[in-house]
Amino acid sequence: MSWYNSPIMKVKLYDTTLRDGAQTEGVSFSVEDKIKISKLLDSMGIHYIEGGWPGSNPKDIEFFQKAQNIPLSNATIVAFSSTRRANVQVEKDKNIEALVESGTKAVAIFGKSWDFQVTQALKTTLEENLAMIYDTLSFLKSKGKEVIYDAEHFFDGYKANPEYAIKTLMEAERAGADLICLCDTNGGCLPNEIAGIIDEIKKHLKVPLGIHAHNDSDCAVANSLVAVERGVVQVQGTANGYGERCGNANLFSVMPALKLKMGVDCMSYENLSKLSEVSRHISEIANLPLNSGQPYVGRSAFTHKAGIHVSAVMKNPETYEHMKPELVGNERRVTVSELSGISNLVFKAQSFGVDMKKDSPHVRGLLNKLKQLEHEGYQFEEGEASFEMLVKRAMGEFKLPFEWNRFEVKTVKGKNKKTVVEAKVEVKIDGKIIKAKGKGNGPVNALDEAVRGALMKKFPAIDDIKLVDYKVRVLNSKDGTGAKVRVLIESRDEAREWGTVGVSANVIEASWLALVDSIEYKLMMEGVK
Fold it and tell me: Which residue(s) pair with 487 in the sheet?
């Protein structure tokens, strides 16, 4: 049972990833990207999806044209714009005209609540700003639109001039706004301020309230939750907290907090279980790495490394987990490192299908081997395939069906001044030495070609392997060009994805070690003997 008895029956979720989230540095969504994200958000039961500002750019105009044909089951697409321009009739404002032509059932209008913004940014009078709010919202209501009014900079405006800030909201209510969303646009408010101001505002208004928080003080999620506690019925935010500067309230943290911790009806448990998958999918579309430490959905959100933690989690996960990871579509992970204890090894071995007990004679030797390898620079948190083979070899469950004899790599610059890398590989299969050559645009590419040439005939399964990522990290940069490097290789076939690791003072050797581990792992998973 939730500790918090919500006074609200339902909270609506409003996603602005396609507009506010698109302002993230380095992000540029295509129209097709926006359609994909809309479908993903709809699949989770998001109530409103803000598609963009149809009067601002051709891309958003095209999106709204295509959005009319997107088969959505849950979400309402929202078009966004500002109040009419100062001293311009609302019927003649091009932005408002584009908003109406966007064809959406719902619109979101932002207007100024802070007197400072009115006089400094809009360069108009406080009275004209009130008229801009009323005229715009009443006009859109006359067009049959559901109107959400975003009171921009509201909390800063209230702290500076509460009387005027409240007047702006009362004009929006008088104009027929269906909901007024209070915005912490600069992201500088703390939860206690949000709570106190909302309590005061509710004394003056009857219209439902929402919250739109930015994360410049790292309080956007907390501010959103406390606003719900104080009675707001809509929460605006973005997927993974994307947005300008420090981002917006992360809806993917807000949703599980509302549903699981506050008992608020905002989505179904079934849809909540899609959270991690959708979060990662959107990060791929945005071409941004998902923060591994992101609450609820990050890869490390339910990962345990310290031996004493793992020992406790194996007895009861609640000892170091605030909730079941499956509820948000995530999973419990245990990593192995020099900090690991026997519990980590046993947990990992069992996850690999190896029946290892704490009193197994192999455990102590494996633990010592692990610590030695990590001392040399190995890291198995992203190279779990290498570690799985280490465990299975130690337990006698995997033996390579051939021997690696030698490899050679050289770089040649031809007459055309183009650089070509050549590799040679020798392996011993069934007592015979097999030699193969490979060429590529780099040593890993050339070695990969040579290895495939040597093994393909006997082990055709390796043809399915695709190398999808390659990372090099210098481990002790103070040693200059003599420093050790760690190479991580990510590979994939039609059924799975895996990571392998190699360490050496020679970057080519480190790459070779990670590469052959990738090949060996594929053969092990195929049951080759």
Answer: 472, 502
pLDDT tens track for 344-361: 677 767 777 777 777 777
What's the half-sphere exposure (Cβ side, CA atoms, 13 Å) at 65? 9
Helix 31-43 vs helix 275-286: crossing angle, to nearest 10: 170
Give Cβ neighbours of residue 284 (< 8 Å, ≥ 6 apart): none
- Domain regions of the chain by residue span: 12-267, 303-394, 402-458
| pLDDT the model gives residue 340 | 56
Inter-helix orientation angle 361-376/342-351, to 10°? 100
Which residues have a Cβ under 8 Å from the Cβ of 481 and sit 6 or more positions away? none
Average pLDDT, the chain: 90
Query: Cβ(182)–Cβ(151) under 8 Å?
Result: yes
Instruction: Supply the pTM of this predicted model.
Output: 0.73
* Strand-pair partners of 434: 427
Element of type H or E holding 473: strand 466-474
Instruction: Report the amino acid identity of residue 241.
Output: G
Right CATH number for 12-267 from 3.40.50.880, 3.30.465.10, 3.30.470.10, 3.20.20.70?
Answer: 3.20.20.70
